[in-house]
Amino acid sequence: MTAAPAGQSADFETVATESGDTAVIPYTSGTTGRPKGAELTHSNVMLNVLTCHKLFGEIEHDVHLITLPLFHSFGQVDQMNAGIASRATLVLLPRFAARSALALMQRHAVTFAWRRTQPLAALRACSAQRLSLT
After folding, report:
1. 79 neighbors 73 (Cβ within 8 angstroms)
2. What are the per-10-residue average pLDDT scores of the chain (134 residues)?
3. Separation of alpha carbons 41 and 45, rounded Å
4. pTM of structure
5. Do 66 and 54 meet the contact criterion of CB atoms below 8 Å apart?
6. What angle, 0 to 180 degrees and rounded to 10, lies between the N-to-C axes of helices 98-108 and 117-129?
7. What's the CA gap between 107 and 38, in Å, rounded?
């Protein structure tokens, strides 16, 4: 977006925040089955990003395939924010489909994709259809 929507100013005010201030409120049904907001502070989000870097490491010119919804805390914080913080290229797949995921992985030379059941499904589809991974 290069211009403000019609009738809107392109200027905006920033607001100073502290590490304990609310950054996001993702909604979850958690263990109760009833929707509720789960408040994450700026500190929570940054700790999750740093934890991702420790767990998964960083690769120069990393390319992440994001298949989880960005309204979900794992998709937003652990994939999107961690990728942005490590200067990775982010490739978004709006809805997981094995063939699309494999095509994107090949086209963009993806170095990181995370979703436990999806890679297995993609490999099964690849094997069943005799698709090349190279």
Report:
1. no
2. 75 90 85 85 92 82 88 83 91 87 91 66 61 52
3. 6
4. 0.68
5. no
6. 90
7. 36
